[in-house]
Every structure is written in structure tokens, then in C-alpha cells.
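Please fill in the sequence for the structure shown.

STRUCTURE ENCODING:
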């Protein structure tokens, strides 16, 4: 079968590989895994020329052909308006690739993916939709449209998976919609991780946070909690991995609290570099105020044997509560500080939590993710190769 993937994910022209493209996060690893299920795979995604991130990962896969289309300009409401002018320029390429392919994999939310979904429905192609955001968010008209149309199209021919997990089903009105987790850890990588991060009293305490530096990710509260923690444990360090609009403000807060030597802002890092920092840390902090879907960085931290302090949102309590970490009902700096103190007051329990986290994370490898998707598609569509 020939698969077409349509996503809003931004890519950049590679500086290191001729005629290839690079992007960030776990996306290139997941694309490689999905492409191995099919005889040939085509990828439509947004080409970005400005705001290039550091430490990007090349896009490769089994018979993978990449068709980047220039991103709609601007952001927010202006981007939505610009779609009216962008669509006539790009619809021919989208239509022709959908028509040529046997099946279409749509990644939403995102404007390019949503347009691809509508065109694929018009073309009457079998569709596999993977909702990669937070399932259940219903804030905008686009959200409302997505949650109206997906339960209507999810059937034997069209497959819908929502990123998340837990004991409750994603959609009670259509049990065809199933959960899918998110990951970037392969079995080989899981086995090869170098773990030497059991903390003992008197050791430097290494804290780590990974995520986009936006206000609702709540990194500021971690930094303020660190200032209070420094009074009790002077030998503490915080690594912050990620980039975003809050970077400069967070650096100013760090400086105002006299924590410049205790905090390292790494910016964006590729997958391997993130794992290296995680494996050299003792405690993962994720006090997000965002309704996360299935944060794959949590699986990465667990694979590195880290106990976690995180928020009671989405699938997070299902993964870690009572066995791999502490769940916060309040994401204030004082709450984070108290959770850290509770954790380090019992180093043996802290180490045991890290060991349990690592064992649990092995269920969430890329190979298991690939097999779950492959078996679901195979059951509905027949042999994929």
C-alpha cells in the first residue's frame, strides 16, 4: 500500500543531508516507524525558512518521499485568514498526492492536517486520523468542528486514534475511537541508556524540566521553588530543556533570584541530547497547567529511571501516581517545593520509584507503538505491504 501522511509539523531544509529535511521532537522517529509498515510513504508537511531551531533530526524512513509545502504565513488569527490565499496555491498538490495514494494518515489538530482530512473525505480514501493534541479540548470553532466530525467518520474504513490513555474511553458516543500513546524511545535505545542517577543524601541534587517555555507550562514555579529549596539544600541544580516565548523572562527571574549558577537553560535539544541530560538527573519536574495529551517526554524521563513530580492532568496520574512519583493537586512553587522535600526525605523510596518508572516505560517503546498501529490498520485494511 502507498501511504500519504499529512501534517502541519514544520520542517527545515537540511544543512547536512542533500535533498532532505529536518525537524524537531519525536516526529521524525514516529514517521520512520510508520513508514516501515507500508511499501511506500509520502509526507506532506509545512516548510519553514525562518526561526530555525537548533539540533534538529533528519527525516528518514522506508521508501519515504517528502513533499514540503510552504507554511501559511503569520500566526494565530492572521494565519487563519491567510489560509484563504494559501489554499488555491497548494490544493492541486494535496489533491494529486491524495488521489495517487491508497490510504491517508492525517495528523491533527493543525490547519494543513484538517484541510487534508476534508480533501481525503471528498476523495473517498480510507483515512487513519491520529489526534495528537489534547483530546476533549473544545475551545475554538475549529476544535468544535474536529470533535463533531471525528466521531461521525470513525468506522471500519476510517480509523481514529486519540493521543492519551487511561481507563476511560476517549469518546463514549463512538467506541471505534481508541487511545494511542506517544513515544520516541526504541527498544534498542531503552536497553542502551546509561543510568547512574540514584541520589543519596549529601550528593548534588539534579533536577530537570523539559518542555516548551510557555507560560502555562509553569516553568516559573519550578524556578521559584528552587530558590526556596536552595536555602535547605545549597547543592542543587536545575536543567531546563526547551525553547519558547518565555525564555527571556524566565532568565530574568532566575537572575533576580540569584540562581544563575544553579540553573542551566539548554534551549532546544535533539532526542539523544535530551536523553543524555535526563540520564544524568535525579528528579523530573513537570508541573504543567496545560491539558496534556500523552507527554512523550514523561516516557523518556521514566525510561531514564527518573521519579517524577507532575500535575494531575490527562494520562499523567494513570502512569505515575503512587508508584513512579508524586502528583500535584496544586502547581504553586510551595507545592512543588514540598513535593521535592517529601521525595528526598526518603531516598530509598525515591530510588524505588525510579526503578518502577523505568520498568513501566518499556511498555511504551516505538516498536510497541508501531505494532499497535500496524495491527489496528491491518485488521481493517488488510496487508499493508
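FILLED IN BY: designer on duty
SEQUENCE:
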Amino acid at each position: 500500500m502507498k501511504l500519504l501522511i499529512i501534517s502541519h509539523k514544520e520542517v527545515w531544509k537540511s544543512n547536512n543531508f542533500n535533498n532532505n529535511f529536518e525537524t524537531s521532537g519525536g516526529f521524525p522517529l514516529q514517521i520512520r516507524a510508520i513508514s516501515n509498515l507500508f511499501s511506500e510513504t509520502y509526507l506532506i508537511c509545512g516548510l519553514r525558512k525562518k526561526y530555525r531551531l537548533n539540533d534538529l533530526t533528519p527525516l528518514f524512513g522506508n521508501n519515504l518521499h517528502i513533499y514540503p509545502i510552504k507554511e501559511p504565513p503569520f500566526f494565530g488569527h492572521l494565519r487563519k485568514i491567510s489560509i484563504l490565499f494559501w489554499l488555491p496555491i497548494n490544493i492541486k498538490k494535496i489533491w494529486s498526492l491524495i488521489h495517487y495514494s491508497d490510504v491517508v494518515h492525517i495528523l491533527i489538530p493543525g490547519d494543513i492536517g484538517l484541510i487534508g482530512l476534508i480533501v481525503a473525505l471528498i476523495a473517498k480514501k480510507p483515512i487513519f486520523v491520529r489526534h495528537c493534541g489534547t483530546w476533549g479540548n473544545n475551545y475554538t470553532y475549529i476544535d468544535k468542528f474536529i470533535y463533531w466530525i471525528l466521531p461521525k467518520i470513525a468506522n471500519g474504513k476510517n480509523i481514529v486514534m486519540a493521543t492519551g490513555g487511561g481507563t476511560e474511553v476517549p469518546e463514549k458516543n463512538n467506541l471505534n475511537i481508541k487511545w494511542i500513546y506517544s513515544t520516541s524511545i526504541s527498544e534498542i535505545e531503552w536497553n542502551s541508556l546509561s543510568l547512574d542517577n540514584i541520589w543519596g543524601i549529601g550528593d548534588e541534587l539534579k533536577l530537570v524540566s523539559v518542555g516548551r517555555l510557555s507560560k502555562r507550562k509553569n516553568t516559573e514555579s519550578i524556578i521559584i521553588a528552587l530558590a526556596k529549596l536552595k536555602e535547605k539544600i545549597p547543592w542543587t541544580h536545575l536543567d531546563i530543556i526547551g525553547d519558547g516565548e518565555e525564555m527571556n523572562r524566565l532568565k530574568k527571574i532566575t537572575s533576580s533570584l540569584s540562581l544563575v549558577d544553579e540553573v542551566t537553560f539548554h534551549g532546544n535539544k535533539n532526542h539523544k541530547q535530551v536523553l543524555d541530560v535526563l540520564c544524568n538527573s535525579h528528579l523530573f519536574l513537570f508541573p504543567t497547567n496545560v491539558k496534556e495529551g500523552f507527554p512523550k517526554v514523561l516516557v523518556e524521563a521514566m525510561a531514564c529511571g527518573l521519579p517524577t513530580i507532575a500535575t494531575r492532568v490527562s494520562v499523567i496520574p494513570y502512569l505515575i501516581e503512587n508508584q513512579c512519583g508524586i502528583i500535584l493537586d496544586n502547581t504553586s512553587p510551595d507545592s512543588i517545593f514540598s513535593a521535592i522535600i517529601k521525595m528526598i526525605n526518603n531516598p530509598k523510596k525515591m530510588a524505588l520509584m525510579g526503578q518502577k518508572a523505568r520498568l513501566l516505560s518499556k511498555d511504551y517503546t516505538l516498536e510497541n507503538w508501531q505494532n499497535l498501529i500496524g495491527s489496528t490498520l491491518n485488521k481493517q485494511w488488510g496487508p499493508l505491504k
